[in-house]
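Schema walk-through. Below, the input block comes first and the output block second. Nothing else is stored per chain. Lengths vary across the set, and this one has 189 residues.
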Amino acid sequence: ATGKVEKEMDFWSHTYTDWSQIESPAPHGEQSVHGLNLDWKRFVTYQTIDFFKNEIAPLKEVTPDIPVTTNFMGTYTGLDYWRFAKEVDVVSWDNYPMWHGIQPDWELGAKIGFVHDINRSLKGGKPFMESINLTLYYFSHYCRAHAMAISRQAKHSLRATASPFGLFQPEFIFVAVCYAAGVFCCRIN
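--- output ---
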């Protein structure tokens, strides 16, 4: 084992005398070697995927025909979503747009359209699911209840089916389930 560690130290131009000296690329840790940062992100991705596989194993055993997913987070760079997408049946992401807020609508729309296109690409153009719980989101972030009208939610859904090139893809399913605490919207598009 010592020979392998020495080879790794030569490769990264670092010298470690104990495993406890190896730190993650956090503000207090190692940040100067980009290769180490990339390896850390790979490690975190593999660990997260392994955890996900262990979490879904009993579900797949009992209900093998029911698709499983987890929520991806826009353009989050902490995980390799292209690798992770191989493990989910349906790509899903959380989207909480704040239309008519501080960020100009055109800029927000462009960003959301970009993320929609990324999510479409993760499984080779297959549909993706977008989870929105707007009532609870607005309540928790603004300390007031603000139920978004279903018509506005429908407009938001239609925006997700269009690409930046103006192509319209009407093959989507929009489901809204009303709860006493708010509205949960689930869309596969």
